[in-house]
Design brief:
Structural class: alpha/beta
CATH class: Alpha Beta
Low-confidence stretches: none
Largest sheet: 7 strands, parallel
Shape: globular
Number of helices: 14
Strand content: 5-15%
Order of helices and strands: HHHHEEEHEHHHEHEHEHEHHEH
Mean pLDDT: 97
Number of strands: 9
Number of domains: 1
CATH architecture: Alpha-Beta Barrel
Radius of gyration: 19 Å
Strand order of the largest sheet: 1-4-5-6-7-8-9
Length: 339
């Protein structure tokens, strides 16, 4: 049975029992629920199918915290060309800001109320359907901006057109605020998880993180804290080699750090001992390429290394269609056994 209280005690660095589990599910639950990816997005966004997908995986694996929606937004609103494979993972075929001047033609007024209502509906149905903690996923402004402009282009823009990048980040921050405020009208999530796959210090450098990520994450945290919830940040990169950046994350209000690949969590803990941590085995090298023995051993090693700290287990990034479900189950069952 999901243990929301234990998960929340871990997030808040309070005394807790076993190591809790969270999975950043986007499309894997669709496999369990028997829902085709494209049907969730066929006529706009379908909040009921989104919730059914998320609840299917959570109930099958019985983990302690679950996302409220499979998607934070629908970038087709801004004329991104997005493909939804029937049995696959959505991907962007064409970025609306291939022509950067189009940014100044986009408007938050383009966001339809129906989309916001469906995103909120998904959160409400998930909350009503499980005892697990409810997680509201918010992308970092830099991550959202990369989804409209393209990562390679925005990295070049940081050097050549920094004012354009800041305008784009402001626009994306505004979009996230509108979405979250609508969700908050219906539910108060237990945790807001800011994903930052591209807020990657190895890609951006420390100066890039400080110029184009840090303050925008801080401002995201500010509007999240308009409701009584907790904040987890999930940047990528070899964070254990960047202690100063980790300390800045603590200063801007991050309460839990969800680390990704190529990190030493004990070093991270040494830099920010007052923050809770989430992380675990590598989604690709262990879950996709490994067998059950490898998944079990790597999971045991992670849990035993971190047990006793304010630590929650998850894998290095999101779980999606194509990942072997039996390996995910082996991973979760192992945490429950040794955690």
């Amino acid at each position: 049975m999901a243990d929301k209280d234990n998960f929340m005690h871990m997030i808040r660095c309070e005394p807790h029992g076993h190591v809790p589990v969270y999975l950043f599910d986007i499309t894997l639950g669709m496999e369990v629920a028997g829902i085709d990816t494209d049907t969730i997005y066929l006529n706009g966004f379908d909040g009921e199918k989104s919730a059914r997908s998320l609840l299917a995986l959570q109930k099958y694996l019985d983990y302690d915290a679950v996302n409220g929606s499979v998607s934070w937004f629908d970038n087709r609103v801004y004329e991104n060309d997005v493909v939804f494979p029937k049995k696959g993972i959505p991907y962007i075929k064409g970025f609306v800001l291939k022509d950067p001047s189009k940014l100044y033609q986009l408007s938050h007024s383009d966001i339809p109320d129906e989309l916001l209502d469906q995103l909120a509906l998904s959160h409400r149905l998930v909350q009503d359907g499980t005892d697990a903690a409810l997680v509201h996923h918010v992308p970092s402004p830099f991550g959202a901006a990369s989804g409209l402009r393209g990562l390679e282009s925005i990295l070049m823009d940081m050097l050549q057109e920094p004012d354009f990048v800041r305008d784009l980040l402001e626009f994306c921050l505004g979009t996230s605020k509108i979405v979250s405020e609508r969700v908050f009208k219906d539910v108060c999530p237990d945790v807001c998880m800011i994903s930052g796959a591209y807020d990657n210090v190895d890609l951006m450098g420390e100066d890039g993180v400080r110029q184009f990520s840090m303050d925008y994450v801080r401002r995201t945290i500010d509007f999240i804290h308009e409701v009584d919830t907790n904040v987890c940040f999930h940047p990528h990169g070899e964070l254990s080699a960047h202690g100063d950046i980790l300390k800045e994350y603590e200063r801007i209000g991050v309460e839990c750090l969800y680390y990704g690949e190529n990190c030493d969590p004990l070093k991270i803990h040494d830099f920010i001992p007052n923050l809770s941590l989430m992380g675990g085995i590598d989604t690709f090298t262990t879950i996709v390429l490994g067998d059950a023995a490898r998944v079990t051993k790597d999971t045991e090693d992670c849990v035993r290394k971190m047990k006793g700290l304010n630590y929650g287990f998850t894998c290095s990034c999101s779980v999606d269609r194509g990942l072997p479900l039996d390996m995910i189950k082996t991973m979760v069952d192992t945490v429950k056994r040794v955690g």
